[in-house]
User: Fold this.
Amino acid sequence: MPIVHEPVTSCEDSFGHPAPDVLALEVQGLHFTYPDGHVALRGISLQVRCGEKVALVGPNGAGKSTLLLHLNGLLNGGQGNIRVMGMPVIAPNLPLIRARVGLVFQNPDDQLFSPTVYEDVAFGPLHMGLPEEEVRRRVAYALTQVGMAQYADRLSYHLSMGEKKRVAIATVLSMHPDILVLDEPSAGLDPRARRGLINLLRALPITMLASTHDMLMVRDLFPRTVIMDEGRIVADGPTEELLEQRDLLEAHGLEKL
Amino acid sequence: MDTAMLSHIWKEVTTARMHIPDGFLSLPVALAFWVISAGLLAIAARRTQQQLGERQIPLMGVMAAFIFAAQMINFPVAGGTSGHLLGGVLAAIMLGPWAGMLVMACVIIVQGLLFQDGGLLVMGANIFNMGLLTAALGSLYHGLAGRQSKGVRLVVAGVLAWLSVIAGALFTALQLGFSGTSPFAIVVPAMLGVHVLIGIGEGLITMAALAFVMQVRPDLVSVEAVRAGGGRSWVVAGLLIALVVAVLSPIASADPDGLERVAIDMGFEEIAAAPPYEVLPDYVVPLLGETPVSTIAAGVLGVLVVAAVAIIVGRLLRQRAAIT
Amino acid sequence: MLEGLLDRYLNRASFVHDLDPRVKVVNAFLFILSVVLLPDGAWIAYFLGWCAILAVALLARVGAGFVLRGSLVAFPFALVAITLVFTLPGRPLLTLQLGTWELSASDAGLVRFTSILARSWLSVQAAILLTATTRSPDLLHALRHLRVPGLLVTILSFMIRYLYVLVDETTRLLRARQARSAWSAQGKGGGSLFWRARVAGNMTGQLFLRSLERSDRIYNAMLARGFRSQFVTINPHMMRRRDWVAGGLGICVLLLLQFVAHFVS
Assistant:
């Protein structure tokens, strides 16, 4: 498999320090129509810089999940361009892009298809063909970051919802992604698990884009918010300012806190 | 022909999905397998209703949908080919032989009826090849390995799954041969050759799926859990296996040019000239000739007769047991 | 992933859609039977059969293109029959030299091969028309009336109900695997064959357990609503005069096909 492009940029400068001005994600004029004729995206343009934590809100059917699936090339074929760390998201680059963009699905059961926690977290590194020593190191690192280190040998099937969510995040952290993309991270969690997850996401030193309906989490966690409706971005700005605009929120099926 | 079509053909050829479309089997062959499949399904339906409660009905429906969906799960092998699951052995191990047969039959009925994956007139043959035969092989699992260690059980399941694909391919090839759609000498070795390899994928996925369930929900695959499906179903399972052996043995034991002789003895002119609308084409009638094909046919018939007798005797014995 | 899995039923109001499903099932089956009975090289009868397909497609407002596209599914299987062209004895048409090997295509072989393809192609189109004009619940109801064992039909009903649910679930599983199927920057990746097979098996096992739990929930929900092992429908499925006429007409066409094939030309 020829890899035609290397990551053009990095979220770290040559000394290993964070480089906040670098564009991690760049979407230009993205359109997408599903095969059944449903138009999901009508011209999305979005830029996310290294280290930013961005919330993506909007009613069901706004196109949030469709956009997220585009970010590592699971959906494609519409108009427009996407770049991840400077690399265009096109077929020959996908094997590399999938390590750069860590996609955490809404239902952790879809993500956890191995019997044990360890095997699931090791899937990504193993698929990348990393040496065993490195795989073990990365699994330990990822599980520690989500606070599940002592769960490595447990069966994913028997974990609680909150634990599954954490492991699901670990399954992509073990690939050392540049961007973490989460679909409805707090859905289905009880208050304590939700609080734990928010604290975890806040502590993770990584660029983040998350779709959600949880406006409390948006206020707590994401300095920047993007509102989507009917396949378009209708607002994009600092969370504090957007959450004050009752008319804007209500026009797009959201509620002011 | 565009690339999409070519890749579709490639995919079909390199997976275990051997759904025969209508038009590729002659009427006698198609109808004969409708009769065999309908008979076996009737037995399976009665058994399932006796052994399992009302609860099993949604279970079997969802399981049929599961097998259908699981057939989508693939893994890349090499050169653009991928391994797929057919699922007959897995279904029989998880649900017991009779329920497994019903579930597999439903999968093939829906594929033919709603998705044109396999024909309607030839559905009996498809149900037999990919459903009944595979589930019957799967039902050997509990007898062979039920009380063995986990490793042995997995290997037995894997080998049975591998064999099930080969057996299905063999019957597909024989049906095509008897229908005059493809010469035995070509279609039998070609189908077997390809499916000996494709079957490995089936074996690996079946083993891994079973290992997953053993690890996560061992209660579901313990000896006790599947007892419900055991018992006399053995007779049929064993006989179906015997059927396969009966078909295989003349081929295996024939001298090296045996297959060529099949072709010559069959006489291609006859097939070509034989009007396919005759109910019993010439070449089926003289079963007692001394060609390997008639040996096979005789073997198959013999096993079917034995099967019928065994089932009847089994039922009589059971009724007597019930009285006393 | 889902291409080809989309429901083939076309939501149109037409005479054909409105027919009793039993008539359609029986006629489609008899049509296929009749086509299979046509002898090799009965080109006129094949053509007439195709005209019948076109007429029904037109009447059902399904569109010949839709039927045609769908009918290509049978073609990969043609590979198994293509050897006939080279193995049936007859007048050689074309001889290919492959090294020391000589392949010669015969006229008899070509006629038989083309005839098999033509019959298969007509049969597939009939089946497509049946599915495109009949809703799956009606199809199942027809099967029940046609004396298919009730248990089987009930299992089929449950299966079709949950088919798309599980296909969606599988698609999400496959997607989640794909999202993490990355390669390292050195161009390595994919893992070993056994490991890949094991992952596929794990997904299968996962799907199995979820399906099992789902069926438990379904059963409880059924009990809660007083289900007694039979699906009922409000569609009475009465055979009306037009159903009889359509059925009879269909059979006449089939007889005509046989007559043409055996006695004309």
About this structure: Chain A touches chain C through 37 residues (CB under 8 Å). The two ends of chain A are 50 Å apart (CA to CA).
